[in-house]
Design a protein that fits this description.
The protein is of the alpha/beta class and 214 residues long. The chain contains three helices and eleven strands, in the order ββββαββββββααβ. β4, α1 and β5 form a beta-alpha-beta unit. It is globular and about 50 Å long. The two termini are 23 Å apart.
């Protein structure tokens, strides 16, 4: 990896040491990132929130209906896991959050994997030290309108894009190549598909390379 801070848009989940017997299903897409390593070669970048961090504390700005969309996104992803590897809850104080969801554009030097839906767009920004591969929360999710808030379809777009971005924040670091999946780069479906579910489960039951520090 290079000696700079690495910033992405992501999705990952949590695996406890006692969950080694969980299924690894075959129908999935690549969720990990692969970065050039210093001196040659490739670093595999993978992350899952540890069991001790559950439930993840998520703060949503009171704009664009984000608290409601975030609550729905949490419920959608919780339902994908057989063993409760991911659990989330809204918190009232952003200073106490693992993930922060806000309205507005992402920083210019932010994530490289934004979601571009029809009426809105989103991005998930996490900063990992490129030398130590240590992640320090909070992650930030940015939700931005492409049309006026009362335009038909905007509320649906905000809902599905919030869920897409939460997927990145849980540990799915790449987009699916299939438009029928929620984690496709230009998402149109409103909930995770079977392939999204299988990928999330695999991400939470595979080795990680990024460590969490608070």
């Amino acid at each position: 990896m290079t000696g700079r801070a690495v910033r992405w848009a992501l999705l990952a989940l949590v695996l406890g040491c006692g969950d080694a017997t969980a299924p690894l299903r075959a129908d999935f897409y690549q969720w990990r990132l692969f970065e050039p390593a210093t001196g040659g070669g490739i670093d595999t970048l993978a992350f899952a929130w540890p069991t001790a961090s559950q439930p993840l504390r998520i703060w949503a700005q009171d704009t664009l209906g984000l608290p409601g969309h975030t609550t729905s996104a949490i419920q959608l992803w919780e339902a994908q896991f057989l063993y409760g590897e991911f659990r989330g809850e809204l918190v009232s104080d952003s200073l106490d959050a693992d993930i922060i969801v806000v309205g507005g554009p992402a920083p210019a030097d932010g994530p490289i994997l934004p979601a571009m839906a029809r009426e809105c767009q989103g991005a998930t920004d996490i900063a990992v030290d490129a030398t130590t591969l240590i992640l320090r929360p909070p992650m930030h999710i940015y939700m931005e309108l492409r049309f006026a808030e009362d335009t038909p379809g905007v509320d649906r777009c905000l809902g599905l894009t919030t869920a897409h971005e939460l997927g990145h924040a849980l540990g799915i670091f790449q987009h699916s190549p299939d438009p029928d999946d929620l984690m496709y780069s230009d998402p149109t479906v409103t909930s995770p598909s079977a392939r999204d579910r299988n990928t999330a489960e695999r991400a939470y039951h595979s080795p990680t390379t990024i460590q969490l520090s608070r």
